[in-house]
Write a structure and sequence with these properties.
The complex is a heterodimer of chains A (about 550) and B (about 70). With about 550 residues, chain A is α+β, with helices and mostly antiparallel strands. Among the domains of chain A are: about 220 residues, MFS general substrate transporter like domains (Growth Hormone, Chain: A), CATH 1.20.1250.20; about 60 residues, no CATH class. Helix content of chain A is about 70%, strand content about 5%. In chain A, strands 1-2-3-4 form a four-stranded antiparallel sheet. In chain A, strand 1 and strand 2 form a beta hairpin. Chain B has one domain. Chain B has two helices and no strands. Chain B is elongated and about 50 Å long. The chains are: A alpha+beta (about 550), B mainly alpha (about 70). At the A-B interface, helix 3, helix 13, helix 20, helix 21 and helix 23 of A face helix 1 and helix 2 of B.
Chain lengths: ~550, ~70
Amino acid sequence: MAQNVTNVSKTEEVSSTRRVIAASSVGTLIEWYDFYIFGTLAKIISEQFFPKDNPTAALLATLATFAAGFVIRPFGALFFGRLGDLIGRKYTFLVTLVIMGGSTFAIGLVPGYKTIGFFAPAIVFILRLLQGLALGGEYGGAATYVAEHSPAGQRGFWTSFIQTTATLGLFLALGVILTVRQTLGVETFSDWGWRIPFLLSSLLVGVSVFIRMRMSESPMFVKMKKEGKTSANPLAESFKEKDNLKMVLIALLGATAGQGVVWYTGQFYALSFLQNACNVEFVQSNVIISIALLIGTPFFIVFGALSDKIGRKYIMMAGMLIAVLSYGPIYNNMYDTANLKTKIEVAEKTTVETNEAVKGTDTITTTVTKKTYDDGTTYKETKKLTVPLDEAKKAELAANGKLKPETKKEVTLPQSLYYKMIGLVLIQVIFVTMVYGPIAAFLVEIFPTRIRYTSMSLPYHIGNGVFGGLVPLISTRLVEASKEPGYSNPLTNMINSVTGHIGTPSGQADPLAGLMYPILIASVSFVIGMLYISNKTNNMDVE
Amino acid sequence: MSAIKKFLGIVWSIMGVGIIPLVIMQAMKEIAAKPSEENWIFWSIVIVVLMPIISFSLITFGIFALKGEYDVLE
């Protein structure tokens, strides 16, 4: 009889924990979805909301907005973290969800630059900041809430479900964007269809708010509040008291900074590299990333659960070290897989089509060249030259060297190379799961309940948001800088000497230059983590 | 191990301090060579956001390490 009662109570406990995980995870997943559709649609948003005169500046402006979304996250962590430690976890991360959903929906409604001029980028910028603020408050709340419901000894396992949400959110964002784009067609999507993924968010957020409203407050927070032990000033206690500040610093420098850059390199930089350095066609590159993310996601749970057995530290550090050592060869392999210079063209299959049309005051000449290579790779180059009908304007543009065609290059890989590319991205996603799977449990366990929401949110969002979030901006910049004469990259030199490749000719971008930033940050983080972080934090009592 | 942690505390602090002039000089050099909007945005983000975080955290972390604050985490 007693055995039956124990079994029933255990089953109820597991079922209750599962409900908590599901309710927390769905909301966090939707917040990530909201956050990533903006980043994934960066190019289109740049065209819609920023002046078109200088495409690089427009793209950079979007990336800066993207970075602003990340840079603002630590402020959200402080603001909502403080609230969460003062009034409770449940209501705080309910508010973050509503702010995120509202701002995402509003981005989908903002008229373009052509319609309202400068107000368009200004409004989008403000909404993006609100998104960052909300996300800053969400993650810490969800991780803390789940950890405080989890039984001791299983915290890594249960919190790892929250860890899957960031990747699944990106997967969902890519999936929705691809589906809408395929359904509406490229032109309609670029025109107004890109708004649908933003508007769809309101529906998802509505469902999630409904689920979260029915959840109860964290039992540890309730107990602490009853005993009158909550912190009166979580910010001061977290960052002014030496014992907490030193843990915040070690969490940032020894764990989250390295985790952040590995996370962004494995998911975002990989996509950007496929599209910009390898010129892999839009749909194919997104599908490659999506499949790798989907296959890799269960490993968050595997490494989260493993960290309950062997400790958080060694799994995270191994992930960082392997990433640092293998990024060069992996990206070199990705580049070579799509590199047309290493393939033989099947000349008889080459076609060239030219079309000329008058649109308004311009003549638009479009030349499409299609090539096929011996391994089945196909290449499509579209050159679009816009020439004003007005002779004086035409002469002026020609004199300023602005009469150049816009060139779009698209490489489509055959089945075997496509699978190989998925494999190469998947390896990086596994590194992501190693560094990211156990980190929520690690962060929760090093801070006390009374200031946990505030203390863990800040290092997480600085590491993941600032160090990681700036990967696209800094890496793009490093690739641009590699075009300068006299440029030398130790990583590329080493790979070239091992593989026998000849270096990039002067004036051309070095595709591997962008990796120097994540490699440097992850290396420093690895050294600090290995030396200063204890492996004994697993299964600590989080009361 | 404790001695290495303390010695590296000096290294982290020096890195934290050293990064400030290095980044500022590089920014000035690149902006002077090409004063484009693109350059200004990039270096503003690095100088206003990234550099202070790296410097402050490395210097403070280094001082804590030098004082042996992390020795108890063995």
